[in-house]
Design a protein that fits this description.
The protein is of the alpha/beta class and 231 residues long. The protein has one domain: Alpha/Beta hydrolase fold, catalytic domain (Rossmann fold, 3-Layer(aba) Sandwich).
Length: 231
């Protein structure tokens, strides 16, 4: 079993039925209890093994947030997408599967009591926003990293979950797309620009800043909101 951080969280493989297919994911639960769970939605040819998303997930685990990194495409579909780059832009399909995983989390014994957040990257951010609009009662927050929220189209106006859009300061085209999407959101929202960062946040310290921003957003809207509701 692969551990993100020995003694802090346990990670294990899960399988979720989504229509006619079965999706695989890596669920990591902090050993001392979680304040919420963050479901990662990948895009643009990435997978649950993405070192960038796994790094962010590790830092969220250290903040006592559970994480689920799941592949929204099967291995056969990923092989096709590597050739055509078509399925990664099939936002409706990705969102439908994200909803299926969300519903699974609300039933699974170790996660059903946790508020759910989405962390979407690239086209996965659009899928996360569409899924959040479909499950407004269970999705408590959305964070987009270098995302394409514009691809959610008219669904943006239906999103109720507080949404944080994170973009690299040198990712000029994506900044414009995120500003446009921000204007269509009617929920609590914020656009955070990481200075000097490009689309993949590969610059020194850039991904740490993404993780910090995401952690604070999720702690505020998942953990703290849950504590207010419980008291």
């Amino acid at each position: 079993m692969d551990l993100f951080a020995a003694g802090e969280s346990d990670e294990h493989l899960i399988r979720v039925a989504a229509g006619a297919v079965t999706l695989e994911g890596n669920l990591s639960l902090p050993t001392k209890g979680a304040g919420g769970i963050v479901l990662f939605a990948h895009g643009s040819g990435s997978s649950r093994h993405s070192p960038r998303n796994r790094y962010v997930a590790q830092l969220l685990n250290q903040a006592k947030l559970a994480t689920l990194l799941v592949d929204l495409l099967t291995s056969d579909e990923e092989a096709i997408d590597m050739q055509t780059a078509h399925l990664r832009f099939h936002i409706g399909l990705l969102a439908q599967r994200l909803v299926a995983v969300t519903d699974w989390l609300t039933q699974y014994r170790d996660t059903r009591h946790l508020r759910i957040g989405y962390f979407g990257a690239s086209t996965g951010a659009a899928a996360a926003l569409v899924a959040a609009a479909e499950r407004p009662d269970v999705v408590g927050a959305v964070v987009s990293r270098g995302g394409r929220p514009d691809l959610a189209g008219p669904v943006l106006s239906r999103v109720r979950a507080p949404t944080l859009l994170i973009v690299g300061g040198n990712d000029f085209q994506v900044i414009e797309l995120n500003w446009a999407a921000l204007g269509q959101l009617h929920c609590e929202k914020q656009l955070a620009i990481v200075p000097g960062a490009t689309h993949l946040f590969e610059e020194p310290g850039a991904l740490d800043e993404v993780a910090r921003l995401a952690r604070e957003w999720f702690e505020r809207h998942l953990t703290q909101e849950h504590e207010r509701v419980s008291t």
